[in-house]
Description:
The chain is 43% helix and 11% strand. The longest helix is centred in the N-terminal third of the chain and has 23 residues, at 63-85. It contains 14 helices and eight strands. InterPro entries: GTP-bd, GTP-bd_ortho_bundle_sf, GTP-bd_ribosome_bgen, P-loop_NTPase.
Amino acid sequence: MASLAAPPPKPPFSRGPHLPPSSTAAWKLTAGRNLRGGLAANAVAGGLSVSWNQREKNSVFNGADEDFLEENVWDELDSDLYYWTKPLRPVQWYPGHIAKTEKELKEQLKLMDVVIEVRDARIPLATSHPQMDAWLGNRKRILVLNREDMISSADRNAWAEFFSRQNTKVILSNGQLGMGSMKLGRLTKSLAADVNVKRRARGLLPRPVRAGIVGYPNVGKSSLINRLLKRRMCPAAPRPGVTRELKWVRFGKDLELLDSPGILPMRISDQTAAIKLAICDDIGERSYDVTDVAAILVQMLTKIPSVGSRALYNRYKIDPDGIGGKTLIEKLSLQRFNGDNSQAAFRVLSDFRKGKFGWVALERPPR
């Protein structure tokens, strides 16, 4: 496995434009570090992070400055991810059924009145297909952020506000429990209400509204349809690649839904996004080294303010401060799995997916 050592000095690379901080912003960041006793130069994350014992000692820190520092932590995390993934074997997964589906889906999309794009609420940007806009053109679209129960209220609010500013119709849903499904059904019908008005004007009989449900593998497309229909019409399981062909299903008398297999780019050029897909189980396991991915997850969690080193220590009784993600996996393997690093890595990934570190998104909206 490639080493996940501390990265070299970084060029401008962040979620937003890389600009020199203003004197006020620079003062805030410097003052914040001084008041906290300094942000630890933490080898776990290959950069600056706040260790859990430092957080406790400085719990009275001003809330506005906390927000400022948190935004900088997310910018640092994006930059660090680039360096952590650069030396690793690229994550690529493009099974044969996806190539076939993509060709058929592009033809079916021409018949759609509305397209429902489903993304993983934990990684809304990483589960956005780079060609989706080109495929849909001016077609009406609804964006569904599924698994909203797996992120915090702060994450939900941040993403809802972000997409609202873009005038994107967005619904937060939980496909397993059905939250958001009825709202989705009503919105789909209302967006396509003019379809039958135009048909009647041409002397044609009304027809059901046609809606296609598209998105990456394992983001919950089939579960969402099953909840809408209130019965199991589409095979669904918590792993990528279960749905392997297009399938039309009828929702009442006035709505038809097209369930589709998950679609991915033939080549994932953004490897930071690919690692997030692996962490969230939105890409096939054969495409990545589980120990690499778990090590990066450890390093991400130590950086995310709402999780931090304490959550990892409470879970495994291993202090991640001052060590890399790979070292924590190795220590955990010796502690619980007779030195099997893969089993230890699977445990860490499984714990994250089950919310053992708290429900948290791995992305925040770009500034």
